[in-house]
Design brief:
globular; Cytidine Deaminase, domain 2; nine-stranded mixed β-sheet; about 170 residues; about 40% strand; two-stranded antiparallel sheet; alpha/beta
């Protein structure tokens, strides 16, 4: 399947940005990750549920999880919400004045093989008094003294960047 967009409910945007801010504010900063659930329609992924994953070890630039436990959690949440597993999200924090929302080679590893990932969202957060600038590819915004950027990537070769939008599901 060739996805050409990812649309997030406003509730999902809140969960993603809140997880990123919590990681940014943690001692020594910590990467956060989680599970994305929803549906696919006409080459678009519609993310209706995002759940931070609490297991695993975290550092400033990585999160390591047990694949079997992660897969069990994906299946539990998918059944609970009667939704498809669309993929995962993880955060990138500003470290030493640098920030990236690009997908690394490590980001291409699937945390759950069955069901497979379709999309990976990278949520970058940084502190700034400057307002965010509009963009066609990323979802960007401001929350208090923080700025955020959400980038979407297809989780299959060639791992293309795909536009991310927000839409109130109510």
């Amino acid at each position: 399947m060739n996805l050409d967009r990812v649309t997030l409910s406003n509730d999902v945007v809140y969960v993603l940005v809140n997880a990123a801010i919590q990681g940014y504010e943690a001692s020594y900063k910590q990467e956060r990750l989680g599970i994305l659930l929803g549906r696919v329609h006409q080459n678009g992924a519609f993310v209706e549920h995002a759940t931070p994953y609490r297991g695993g070890d975290r550092t400033r630039s990585a999160a390591v999880v047990n694949g079997d436990r992660f897969t069990r959690r994906v299946r539990q949440l998918s059944t609970k919400h009667n939704s498809l597993f669309l993929g995962t999200f993880h955060t990138h924090n500003e470290i030493a004045g640098t920030l990236s929302s690009a997908m690394s080679l490590e980001d291409r590893n699937h945390l759950c093989e069955d069901p497979p990932h379709l999309v990976e969202l990278i949520v970058a957060v940084w502190g700034s008094a400057q307002p965010s600038r509009p963009t066609q590819r990323y979802l960007q915004g401001d929350v208090g003294s923080y700025r955020f950027r959400i980038a979407g990537y297809q989780m299959y070769p060639p791992y293309n960047l795909i536009p991310v939008y927000s839409h109130d599901a109510n």
